[in-house]
Amino acid sequence: MTEAVFGLIGVLIGVFSTWGQSWWSERRSTSRAAHYLAVRVVCVLDQYVERCAEVVSDDGLSFGQRNPDGCLEPQVPLPGPPMFPDDVDWKNISHDLMYRMLSMPADVEAADKGIDFVWNVVASPPDYDEFFEERNYQYGRIGLKASALANELREAYRIPQRELGDWNPLEKLSEAIKEAEETRQKRADSMATLMSDLDEE
After folding, report:
1. Positive/negative CA dihedral, 35, 36, 41, 43
2. What domain range is 78 assigned to?
3. pLDDT value at residue 29
């Protein structure tokens, strides 16, 4: 009886040992795949942040000059959504991060539609102020979101921070949002004052 018990225990130890090794090997493989995915996605997001910063730095002038009609016009094309690699296995990262990254194309599409509406319906020549304001606000916001996602991936997977040097795209993006919000507030205040004056008349 005792020998049978010891034999059974030996079999169970062998089974669990094999299972444990398999589980540990699979876990290590998943961890390496997640880290590799994170590095690739961070590189895409970093580049995307740069492109957003280029958009908000666009003042509508070509080498300091207006177009032949004396108007400002965009010099930097909108970047569209970030282009993640087709072979990325998103299941290797947290569901929250996955959702926020995969929802970025919808955010960008909504922003582009808003910018297009302002260009065609609201803004007017020669400066198209409302258009550049909306463009800067939307891509300032999207660029900062992309940067925040990249930073979360860096923290989660121990990826080194970027060395920005003299050019800091995050400062450009933050400044663009701040200036757009201040301009909108001034416009709203002016409109409120105008309406108040009309009511008094």
Report:
1. positive
2. 2-200
3. 45
